[in-house]
């Protein structure tokens, strides 16, 4: 599938436990760009077999509008992964956009999922290669291998930071996901991880997604943490509660004034360069000099705004 088709809107990625029919029904009407039905940590071990069936039925019932429809399976160190993938994709593969693989540690794990999806697509007569992969980086091994993970399959669409598991995996001295660990007062303790993920994603034309903020009643805190990822260039973030949705969509959309300015830069650049018969590389917009690099920066903001319907 072409890169552009893989770049689905993902400002807000709503987590919904696959075991909760009530939450699944509610999620259909919420303004999230993506919904992911969870078979992993939001689903107790004994609830997983029934949750697979609930998820298949929910996808096939439809009603998801333009939302990107994703299922998070269990990670490959468990005994559940293959059944998750086989049951969900055989049962609802035509109504599913991506499988999210948590705690990815190596490129081989992504290759396993790619091959398994191909087998199921062939068996079921689905279009081969249509279902994408979202890879969650949640431990040190995943992070050091993130470049290989990002290029392990053309199905990979996103690299996701899983801060809660990541913090546990590196023994970070904090219990508040996304907030700075007490005692670390020389910068942002997440900067390296976020940048590492962002570089692997961008080098492979993938989207970079930030994980959850668990203090669900603290919308200001959500905005602060989401704002950092958005400022670096991340495309979206997880949402655990409907109360975080508006803040998330706003944070990952450009401000109206920035969007308008970006469109002005593109118009001005187009006008001045075409006026000079393609021989002029830079132009002035008010007091600002614009050139090919500013055109590219403006295009990033304009594309985000256009995708958000601005
Ligand atoms: C998400 O899965 C996380 O561990 O933060
Ligand atoms: Mg996790």
From TrEMBL:
Pfam families: HpcH_HpaI. It comes from Gandjariella thermophila. Keywords: Lyase, Magnesium, Metal-binding. SUPFAM superfamilies: Phosphoenolpyruvate/pyruvate domain. InterPro entries: Aldolase/citrate-lyase_domain, Citrate_lyase_beta/mcl1/mcl2, Pyrv/PenolPyrv_kinase-like_dom, Pyrv_kinase-like_dom_sf. GO terms for biological process: oxaloacetate metabolic process. PANTHER family: CITRATE LYASE SUBUNIT BETA, LYASE BETA SUBUNIT, PUTATIVE (AFU_ORTHOLOGUE AFUA_4G13030)-RELATED. Its cofactor is Mg(2+). Substrate binds at residues 72, 138. Mg(2+) binds at residues 138, 165. Residues 11-242 form the HpcH/HpaI aldolase/citrate lyase domain. One of its GO terms (molecular function) is magnesium ion binding. It comes from the Bacteria. This is CoA ester lyase.
């Amino acid at each position: 599938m072409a890169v552009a088709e893989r770049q689905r809107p993902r400002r807000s990625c709503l987590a919904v436990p696959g075991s909760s029919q009530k939450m699944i029904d509610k999620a259909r009407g919420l303004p999230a760009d993506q919904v992911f039905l969870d078979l992993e940590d939001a689903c107790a071990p004994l609830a997983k077999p029934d949750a697979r069936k609930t998820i298949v039925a929910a996808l096939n019932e439809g009603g998801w509008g333009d939302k990107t429809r994703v299922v998070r399976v269990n990670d490959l160190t468990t005994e559940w992964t293959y059944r998750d993938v086989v049951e969900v994709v055989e049962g609802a593969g035509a109504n599913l956009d991506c499988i999210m693989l948590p705690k990815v540690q190596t490129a081989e794990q992504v290759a396993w999922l790619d091959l398994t999806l191909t087998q199921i697509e062939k068996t079921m007569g689905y279009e081969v290669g249509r279902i994408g992969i979202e890879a969650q980086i949640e431990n040190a091994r995943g992070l050091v291998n993130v470049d290989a993970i990002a290029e392990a399959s053309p199905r990979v669409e996103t690299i996701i930071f899983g801060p809660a598991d990541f913090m546990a995996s590196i023994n970070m001295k904090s219990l508040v996901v996304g907030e700075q660990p007490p005692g670390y007062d020389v910068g942002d303790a997440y900067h390296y991880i976020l940048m590492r993920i962002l570089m692997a994603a961008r080098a492979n034309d993938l989207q970079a997604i930030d994980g959850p903020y668990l203090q669900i009643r603290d919308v200001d805190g959500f905005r602060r943490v989401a704002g950092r990822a958005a400022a670096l260039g991340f495309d979206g973030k997880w949402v655990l509660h409907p109360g975080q949705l508006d803040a998330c969509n706003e944070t990952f959309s450009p401000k109206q004034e920035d969007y308008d300015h970006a469109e002005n830069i593109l118009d001005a650049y187009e006008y001045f360069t075409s006026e000079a018969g393609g021989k002029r590389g830079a132009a002035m917009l008010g007091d600002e000099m614009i050139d090919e690099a500013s055109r590219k920066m403006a295009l990033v903001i304009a594309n985000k705004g256009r995708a958000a319907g601005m």
